[in-house]
Amino acid sequence: MSTAFVLAHTSLAPVPLVPEVRLRLADEAIELWQYTEKFAGGVQLPPPFWAFAWAGGQALARYVLDNPELVRGKAVLDVAAGSGLVAIAAMKAGAARVTAVEIDPLAVTAMVVNAAVNDVRVDARLEDVLPGDGGDADVVLAGDVFYSREMTGQVLEFIGRVRRRGASCLVGDPGRAYLPKEHLELVAVYDVPVPQTLEDTPMKRTTVWRPTL
To answer: How many CB atoms are located within 10 Å of the residue 182 CB?
Structure first.
């Protein structure tokens, strides 16, 4: 998808909780969604999650940057990567390599653009990895993935396979209804500034978890 489109509909800004990272961000979701579908010739597309710094991703990126030993020298997989925020944070924290996956072509484009802005290299891929086990990644990261019952079930099965082959995993969550706390261990809590066009409050209490599956 078009780099020009991403550049035309976003502006460069530091991430509130992670000012070390700058992203191409949009101001309003619905209008941008309409533009993306028009750009795609009327094809129905996912919401433009890639154009916003979601609270779950911000918290996870902050935790990774503050605890670089978690990823330093390791192969990292960022799942449902959106803007690429968490992937970029992992590279800045010293990861050997980071693969960031999305099912939205515009998200893949945005990740490439954002990685370049932050002077890091991220392997951005259009791929659904949830049926697998994370491949050869030493660390799997996922921000804000428990937003529906179906997605939560898929992610839990994926994380289970990741853990059984010996990789570590961290997830960030801004209090979604389907957060499976019974399978998670709390490791950090942040108050994250978020646009009120996305959430019901300007500040979201957001958590980082380590799966116990």
So the answer is: 6
Sign of CA dihedral 128, 131, 134, 140: positive
Order of strands, sheet of 184-193, starting from the edge strand that comes earlier in the sequence = 123-126, 97-102, 75-79, 139-143, 168-173, 203-211, 184-193
Residue-wise pLDDT for 30-80, tens only, equals 678 677 767 666 666 667 889 999 999 999 999 999 999 999 999 999 999
Radius of gyration from C-alpha coordinates of the chain: 16
- Single pTM value for the model: 0.93
Q: Which CATH superfamily is domain 3-211 in?
A: Vaccinia Virus protein VP39 (3.40.50.150)
Closest to 67 in 3D by CA, of 193, 182, 202, 187: 187
156 neighbors 179 (Cβ within 8 angstroms): no
Q: What are phi and psi of 12, to 5 degrees?
A: -80, 130
Decide: 56 and 143 in contact? Cβ < 8 Å: yes
**Is residue 96 within 8 Å of 138, Cβ to Cβ?**
no
CB-based contact 131:160 (threshold 8 Å): no
Return left, alpha or beta for 77; rule: phi > 0 is left, psi -120 to 50 is alpha, else beta.
beta
Phi (first) and psi of residue 38, to 5 degrees: -65, -45
Q: Judge whether 124 and 112 are in contact, CB under 8 Å.
A: yes
In the chain, which residue ranges form alpha helices assigned H by DSSP?
3-8, 29-39, 55-66, 85-92, 105-117, 149-164
